[in-house]
Backbone:
């Protein structure tokens, strides 16, 4: 009888666990945005103006949103992407009634001015990714990160995109408080040569996707003798918080969760001549789920929230993805852990190690 009661308690406990976790995951990651970049029709001159036929035919992205949700920012931001055999091209339009900037030294912390930022993770494993920032003076900061800050990543601030080109065009007057501006546009060409295989061969993602995202930092400002500066709180004397507006939702004030970045598919078709419908791979929906579990695991307050151990195996609640059940497993070791699940779509094992790096392989 006691044995039967014990089994009943375990069953009830397991059911309650599944119900609790199911409620948590109703608030799941919002799906990242996608963009299809096509090949250019003509030569692109980097002047910040996008007058070429290729840019005219390229479609605009969705308007940027607040980094924590879908709230519409004060000013509009949107972008376009093109590519050819030499470069990947970016063009962005930033609405701004007061265009100002005062940072002029390359590789300084550019987001202390209003800025535009690009994040690039070519292989989507959340490690070894690139960041680019620029202000309205066309001062840039390009850097390489070995992994996200949450994983103790090292920042190579002296790293540069070789032969990068960039330009800014002001629709108004820079650093002039006496008038109202329309905004500023930026144009960038990044040579593909920044990303190579172990043999030094440039990798072109033709008909493939990269994880890429964009952010815009915007500050309230003070004026003193006609000069702009970041606004300070009168009570504390500290700088007021910046606004962060992004293309693809992060749902948290942190761009360094690369698993949430958008998807850019590089079609080999010419811009304006073809249309490609890109769909996010089904395995990536599993990947998002694994990373949600991972973020909970490395958070001390939530490290045991999503997991249940039974029959000497630690697992999380199964999740239905495109009608298929996926059950993540947690394996703990002396110096770390691995979260993994087998994909019912590709049959690959999808896993995340303690350092946050994603890997997919056949078992």
Residues:
């Amino acid at each position: 009888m006691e044995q039967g009661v014990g089994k009943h308690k375990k069953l009830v406990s397991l059911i309650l666990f599944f119900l609790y976790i199911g409620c948590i995951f109703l608030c799941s990651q919002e799906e990242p945005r996608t963009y299809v970049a096509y090949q250019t029709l003509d030569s692109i001159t980097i002047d910040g103006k996008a007058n070429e036929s290729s840019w005219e035919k390229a479609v605009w992205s969705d308007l940027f949103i607040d980094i924590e949700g879908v709230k519409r920012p004060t000013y509009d931001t949107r972008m376009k992407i093109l590519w050819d055999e030499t470069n990947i091209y970016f063009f962005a339009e930033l609405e701004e009634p007061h265009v100002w900037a005062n940072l002029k030294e390359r590789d300084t912390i550019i987001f202390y001015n209003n800025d535009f930022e690009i994040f690039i993770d070519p292989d989507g494993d959340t490690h070894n990714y690139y960041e680019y920032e620029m202000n309205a003076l066309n001062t840039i900061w390009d850097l390489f990160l070995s992994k996200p800050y949450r994983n103790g990543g090292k920042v190579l601030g002296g790293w540069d995109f070789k032969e990068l080109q960039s330009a800014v065009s002001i629709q108004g007057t820079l650093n002039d408080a006496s008038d109202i501006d329309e905004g500023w546009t930026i144009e960038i060409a990044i040579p593909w040569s920044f990303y190579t295989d172990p043999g030094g061969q440039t990798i072109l993602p033709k008909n493939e996707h990269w994880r890429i995202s964009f952010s815009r930092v915007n500050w309230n400002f003070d004026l003193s003798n006609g000069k702009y500066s970041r606004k300070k709180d009168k009570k504390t004397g500290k700088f007021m918080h910046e606004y962060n507006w992004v293309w693809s939702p992060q749902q948290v004030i942190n761009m360094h969760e690369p698993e949430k970045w958008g998807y850019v598919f590089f079609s080999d078709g010419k811009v304006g001549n073809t249309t490609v419908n890109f769909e996010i791979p089904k395995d990536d929906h599993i990947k998002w789920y694994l990373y949600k579990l991972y973020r909970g695991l490395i958070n001390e307050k939530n490290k045991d929230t999503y997991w249940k151990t039974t029959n000497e195996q630690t697992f999380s609640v199964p999740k239905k993805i495109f009608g298929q059940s996926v059950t993540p497993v947690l394996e703990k070791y002396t110096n770390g852990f691995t979260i993994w699940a087998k994909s019912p779509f590709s049959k690959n094992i999808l896993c995340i190690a303690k350092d946050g790096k994603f890997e997919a392989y056949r078992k």
Remarks:
- Residues 14-28+282-361 form one domain.
- Confidence is low (pLDDT under 50) at residues 9-27.
- The longest helix spans residues 2-24.
- Helices lie at 2-24, 53-57, 282-298.
